[in-house]
Amino acid sequence: MKLATLSLLLFCIGTVHAAAPVDSPAESCDQIRTQIKAHAGVPDKPNTALLSKVGANRKCRFTGAEAYRAAWGDKPMPKDDRPSRRSKHREHDDD
Q1: What is the pTM assigned to this prediction?
Q2: Nearest to 66 by CA among 78, 81, 49, 50
C-alpha cells in the first residue's frame, strides 16, 4: 500500500513538473523596473501580470514600494497608523 501511494505521489509530481510552462527569455531587472515606472494611473484591479514578474524575480530584490506600484500604479501607499508593537507589550521595571 505504501509503495502504491509513493508511486502515485511521484507520478503527480512528475506530471506537474512536465506541465509547467517553459520560461521564455527572462526580462532583465532594469526592463521590469522601467515597466513599473511606466505603470501610471490608479487601476480598478491590481496589475497581476506585472506583479507576477516582480514576484518571480527574487534576484532583482524589488522593494515593497516597487511591488506596490507594480500592482496599483500611482495609488498612494496606505499609512501605517498602528502603534509600535515593541512598546505595546513592554514591561516597565520602574513601577
Answers
A1: 0.56
A2: 50
In a domain, 72, yes or no: yes
Whether 64 is covered by a domain: the verdict is yes
Q: Which domain holds residue 60?
A: 26-77
18 found inside a domain: no
Ranges of residues in the chain with a pLDDT under 70 are 1-25, 81-95
Question: CA torsion sign, 22 to 47 to 30 to 77?
Answer: negative
> In the prediction, which pLDDT does 91 show?
61
88 found inside a domain: no
Query: Within 13 Å and on the Cβ side, how many CA atoms surround 4?
Result: 1
State how many domains the chain has.
Answer: 1
What is the per-residue pLDDT across 30-42, written as a single tens digit (0 to 9) for each? Answer: 999 999 999 888 8
